[in-house]
Amino acid sequence: MGETLFAKILRGDIPCHRVYEDEHVVAFLDINPISRGHTLVIPREAAATLDVLSDDAAAALGRVLPRIARAVLAATGAHHFNVLQNNGAPAHQAVFHVHFHIIPMHADGTGLGLDWDPRTSRRRRGAGEGDRGRAVTRAALVTATLVGALIALATGGCLMPRYLAQASHGQLELLAKARPIKDVIADPDTPLRTALLLGEIPAIKQYGRSYGLVVRRNYNTYAALGRPAAVWFVGAADPVAFKPRKWCFPIVGCFAGLGWFDEDDGVRHKLALEAAGYDAIVRPASAYSTGGWFPDPVLSTMLGGGDDAFPELANVILHESVHATILVPDQPFFNESVATYVADQLTDHWIETRFGRGSPEELAWTLGQATGIHRTARLLDAYKQLEAVYASADPRAAKLARKATIIDALVADLRMRRRPNNASLTETRVYNGGADALIVAHRACGDLASLVHAARSLTRGDFAKTLQDDLTPIGPLLGRRCAERTARQSRAAAR
Q1: Is 99 a catalytic residue?
Q2: Which site from 49, 281, 328, 415 is most exposed, i.e. has the minimal number of CB atoms within 10 Å?
């Protein structure tokens, strides 16, 4: 029998999204998954079927299968899964190298079905959205608008009085609930898991500082909120243009969304925006940053319970610390993209340093990142398709019809429970659309600390317009800032 596909993957001839590997075992995402998070676990040993696999290789598989299964559940949010292992063509084996399928069963019904044939990749179709996205679970809602709210209230302004009042009250209530972290850890009533997570925060903060992040007064306190989200984010956009609705405040500038401390208020705001003709969204956010205007506490909504709890906590703190360090007024696309890029890069390194390669924490984080890549790429592809439609000279009705066709295909491809719209696609662009420009800048700057320093130098004047979504020119600009800094340092050293 000839060389198998898996042998080529093991050798590196064919790319894959590896989520785990050690001396004996490799795990990677299935290229044609039956459900989100479908993962293959294979031995490095070239055995066609389980009955001829060596005892050592079988033992190595047995040791890591439970760990990888836990990581799949943590990354996908599923609670149930199947482990499938076929031996021989009559038993539906398609690749003749021992492999185990870990297949999550999602609430929408997607998962292993009796009608699934791995050779033809037939699968049960569900209406599930799949990945809610990290923007939902730990969105960085920059609410320096609270400062504008306080100013507007003090000066008798008419900027959405109800929103401004709840924003001020909600922030003050949150600060009132905050307790020093050291006291929370010492409290015998604090759950052990909470104490362990909070105990990691000083080291995470120091790690961020080593790369130039300004933690300031943040994350010295802890607030138990007693609700599932910190705030509910509301955003809106024109139905036939990627033109986000913006809200502007004194001093702090303009924002492409607002945060409500009460879910019902957020839903009412979304419905009002829809009634006014906008595409609108409302979603929970587990964390937000006030951009250094207030001392940000660690929130109970930032603490998870699975193997990904430590990585996600580190990522949230690093992400929000980027906001406290780099915040260009009126530029949410840049602010969120740079926070996402820098925090993800730092989290990758922090996990490997803190827990080691192959640890449950590293596996859970890597798998979570890998499962989101395809979804994000597909959403951004739909964004680009729609952008071309909106730029055309077609009448509005034709644009709306073409929009419906593109979104129908997107929903089918990703099995989405919630139908996306211009507001949700704009948010995907906000968090991820600047990655290419930042990669260019990172390569030019050489390291993350230099990139952070260059990004801190940007001002409103470096951008062509308010809420600039095309960050392509920003990559070379940051590279030039890094080169100028290096030249200054060289001249100073030569004196």
Answers
A1: yes
A2: 49
Maximum CA pair distance of the chain? Answer: 80
List the helix and strand counts (H, then E) for the chain.
17, 15
Instruction: From residue 305, give the alpha-carbon distance in Å to each of 80, 142, 196, 356.
Output: 17, 25, 11, 20
Which residue(s) pair with 258 in the sheet?
234
* Amino acid in the structure at residue 447: D
Q: Indicate the pLDDT class of residue 392, thresholds 50, 70 and 90.
A: very high
Four-residue CA torsion sign, 39, 80, 78, 317: negative
Q: Which residue has the tokens 């064919």?
A: 14
Sheet holding 39-43, edge to edge: 18-21, 25-29, 39-43, 100-105, 80-84
Torsion on CA atoms 116, 119, 125, 128, rounded to nearest 10? 100
The 3-state DSSP class for residue 114 equals coil
Catalytic residue among 38, 97, 99, 269: 99
- Determine if the pTM surpasses 0.85: no
Q: Environment class of residue 322 by beta-carbon count within 10 Å: exposed (0-12), middle (13-18) or buried (19+)?
A: buried
- What does the pLDDT look like over 405-422, one tens digit per residue? 999 999 999 989 899 999
Q: What Cα–Cα distance (Å) separates residue 439 from each residue in 153, 383, 393, 434?
A: 41, 20, 34, 9
